[in-house]
Amino acid sequence: MLTFQPCTPESCAPLRNIGDLVSPHGCDTSIINMCCWQHLYKGHIAQYKGNVVLRFLHGNHHAYSLRFRPEMLRELLDVVEQDAAAHGDPLRIFGVNADIINYYLEADTTLRATFSEDYSDYVYARQALATLTGHKLQSKRNFLNRFRRNYPDYQYKPLDESDMQACLDLDKSWINKGIDLGHTDDEINERKTIKYVFEHWHKLSATGGTIYVDGQLVAFTYGAPINGNTFDVCVEKADTAFEGAYAVINNEFVNHLPPQYEWINREEDLGLPGLRQAKTTYHPAEKLHKYILVKSRES
User: Fold this and answer.
1) Angle at 96 between CA 92 and CA 100, to 5 degrees
2) What is the mean pLDDT of residues 178-205?
3) What integer pLDDT is reported at residue 177 of this predicted model?
4) Mean pLDDT over residues 152-164, rounded?
């Protein structure tokens, strides 16, 4: 009953205008992430009576994310459960935020909810990242000011096609700093996503920024909107030989985003201690929990 297509910028076009459909607002099922991670998670999209269903792999199992009309959720869950069963899987709904979870639990009382801090999104007030005011962000201001003192002629510019090879070179250098350990699967897969985004830049509505010092690229970042007021920062890379480069690309990029984006989603920490520390020190306004709803076959 569901006809799925692989996630591409074209097939995911319905996600750009979901109207009054109830929708999650985490980073993982945004258009840019569904498309650029398609090689790994095999993202697919289908429409059903005005609702939208995303399907992807979690491990070796199928999982789903829905954009739905509340009055149709019960019917939609039945249809999605049939699709899951056809693949030998129980019904799994991913990325369900706390403000919409009751729709599901009321539609199907057999669903069980769990979440992991490792996969909770870090969401920041755009104004806080733009100004870095207050005692909590003093250390970030210090890094930012140190970079500006050391490199007073640095240049910020929006990321475009002319920067992309330099960005790939910086990313390769960034990965190679851990050459003694070899390239991890995570690094290899992320590099594939960067190449995909660069190849489909305009179709994905991607926006990025760069920092140059004396003509050398020292940092870059990019992302795309999740919705009308939240922007997802997907990738941020910097040459750590330039102290404060991360602080400056973070600050400059946020200050150059359109003012409609009041919230900045900087994605998950995946349980990685260094990444968790880096995201926590910017003091998020919210840790956005993304619940997994599972219906057992015995239900």
Assistant:
1) 130
2) 82
3) 61
4) 98
